[in-house]
From TrEMBL:
It holds the Pfam family NAD_synthase. It comes from Gemmata algarum. Residues 29-89 form the NAD/GMP synthase domain. It comes from the Bacteria. Keywords: Transferase. This is ATP-dependent sacrificial sulfur transferase LarE. GO terms for molecular function: transferase activity.
Length: 301
């Protein structure tokens, strides 16, 4: 779940941001944090618990796009933080606009999530939803926060001026074990635009990335392209190891056994979010950052 966090001192600037984050959340009548167990939503959940106590709840979505290890980690983190935790089943896979994966998948995913959480607010006895989006999330094609805007979701980290580096530093200060955890976007994000999202394909990706981690990697991706082609991304420093036997043969055999017909290693190495390059320009223009009601989502392709 990450390495052990060692106590650090906060700079005056980051300490002021921490106070602003707690004040922002403390002014809310109660909040449901969209909690994936990633570093950003974990910091928001911790801050919400500190600021609001029982008036804060972490809500985690469960669907075929969520790796079982991520769901397990979310449960453990919520228990560690002490925040009330609810796991809800979401049904985005029933939506053909989601499964066709034309580049707007994140919008439909977040719409499903926020609609589901919104329906639970009276039962949870809170009135607002908060995400883990930080300022760095504003720089890429990430259409999911259009759904957030439509559901009046708050983004406390952005409101308090947090970058990703700030989030990691505060997590380390608070002793959260995920302070240096690599980004772990949903399994559906591994499908190249135009490749339909199915539970079978997300399962293949989950098991394929588990194979890579068993070989000693922390950061890796298995991208799913047309023709059941797996494009494996590992850090550039690891390319010689993964391109040579015995690792090459072991990896190829394992991924073929999972149902991939072709297995390739990307010579550019691990690059977060690179499938955005395949999103049609028309969609990128539709979700431009300068549209007042449209904003990027807190996950990544």
């Amino acid at each position: 779940m990450g390495t052990e966090a060692h106590a650090i001192e906060l700079s005056a600037e980051l300490d002021a941001k921490r106070e602003a984050l707690l004040a922002t959340l403390g002014a809310m009548p109660g909040v449901a944090v969209a909690f994936s167990g990633g570093i950003d939503s974990t910091v928001v959940a911790k801050a919400a618990h500190l600021a609001l106590g029982a008036r804060a709840v972490a809500v985690t979505a469960d669907s075929p796009s969520v790796a079982r290890t991520e769901l397990r980690d979310a449960r453990e983190l919520a228990k560690l933080i002490g925040i009330r935790h609810v796991v809800v089943r979401t049904d985005e896979f029933r939506n053909p606009d989601y499964t066709k994966n034309d580049g707007s998948r994140c919008y439909h995913c977040k719409t499903e999530l926020y609609t589901t959480v919104e329906s639970l607010l009276p039962e949870l006895e809170v009135s607002l939803i908060a995400s883990g989006a930080n300022l760095d999330d504003l720089g890429d094609y990430r259409p999911g926060l259009l759904a957030a805007a439509e559901h009046s979701v708050r983004h406390p980290l952005q409101e308090a001026g947090f970058t990703k580096a700030d989030v990691r530093a505060l997590a380390q200060f608070w002793g959260l074990p995920t302070w240096d955890k690599p980004a772990a976007p949903c399994l559906s994000s591994r499908m190249a635009p135009g490749v339909a999202v199915t539970p079978e394909r997300t399962r293949r990706v989950e098991e394929a990335e588990a194979v890579l981690r068993s070989l000693g990697l922390r950061e890796c991706r298995v991208r799913y392209h047309e023709g059941d082609l797996a494009r494996v991304e590992v850090p550039v420093s690891e390319l010689p190891t993964f391109a040579a036997d015995p690792v090459r043969g072991e990896l190829a055999r394992a991924l073929h056994a999972l149902g991939f017909k072709f297995v390739t290693i990307d010579l550019d190495g691990f690059r977060s979010g690179n499938l955005n390059e395949l999103v049609p320009i028309e969609l990128k223009l539709r979700y431009r950052r300068d549209e007042p009601t449209q904003a990027p989502a807190a996950d990544e392709l």
